[in-house]
Fold this protein.
Amino acid sequence: MLKLSSTGRGGGYSKKRGLVESTLAAMYRADWPARAWGLTRRSCAVREIHFGVSGREPGRPPLTLGFVSDLHIGPTTPAAVLDAAFDALAAAEVDVLVLGGDYVFLEASPAKAARLRSLVERARGRLATIAVLGNHDLWTDHRVLEHALWAAGAEVAINATVRLAPPHDDVAFVCLDDPWTGAPDAERALAGAAGATFRVGVCHSPDALPLMQRAGAHLFVCGHTHGGQIATPWGPIVVPGRVGKRYPSGRHTAFATHLFVSRGVGATELPMRAWARPDVALITIS
Ligand SMILES: [Fe+2]
């Protein structure tokens, strides 16, 4: 089936992209690329990135976060790599699970939505599970994905702030819509952050960094770049987005904001990664 425009609320879906994705959807029938990639065990290994960020009020107990992004359930992501990522998150038993968007590659089918639900259910946060949407989610029927996330117990936060009960009521998760294909509105999101002395920014893309800095985010977690997906030992070749080019993956300090850009888990377009190992982050905020 030829798809030449976005079937969700997301903009920025060009005819060229439509032609490429329609061709790939026909070529990748029955998910054979994901199955082939899944045969190489090494490519399915997921790196756990552990780090801590301080700055909370004295006397507050530490809060643990799990962050995972860019699952890209579909024909270019092996089932084993998704299982490995969510097994690692489940084993960590985090307080808050944060999902960075791009849950699918190509259309959001009921089967992909069911898979998303079962993965998230496996690793739900003890206190909360928070999700934003990515460009690939907004180019398809994102409502199917939102329903799967809700059914799994996640809060889908678009231009909204999520707060926790005491003793973690000093922390606010400021969640923005995707800057490329959606409509981020920091002012609206911040309405719920009053009184929070530690702000965690959550958005699919690092391009929200200027908005997060203005929102006073102490920590900003995002994905989208895939670390270039197919990179070289010297660095990535192509990275999307202006901020992503500067910070293609990993941890950075940008003025007062601690930035973490995940390489994500799955793949788009080509069923492979090189020098861009899938990752999940396990973060302690104290
Ligand atoms: Fe992605």
